[in-house]
Amino acid sequence: MRAAERAVDVWKPYGTGEAAVTALGGVSVEFDRGRFTAIMGPSGSGESTLMHCLAGLDTIDSGEVRIAH
What we know:
Layout: E1 3-14, E2 21-32, H1 47-55, E3 62-67
Antiparallel strand pairs: 1-2, 1-3
């Protein structure tokens, strides 16, 4: 089965210097076609950032996101 979406080594930092925060640090994930997936974690762990990057609503600093791969 081909993946509906794939993220490989995705990095998304915010800010610079002492105020810098890494929302996504080397995240890799694959979602199969026709399957429901829940993304869960404690507040501030990057779930919303991941969803925004996967949907193309936000950009990533490095890595790769593929839709309908």
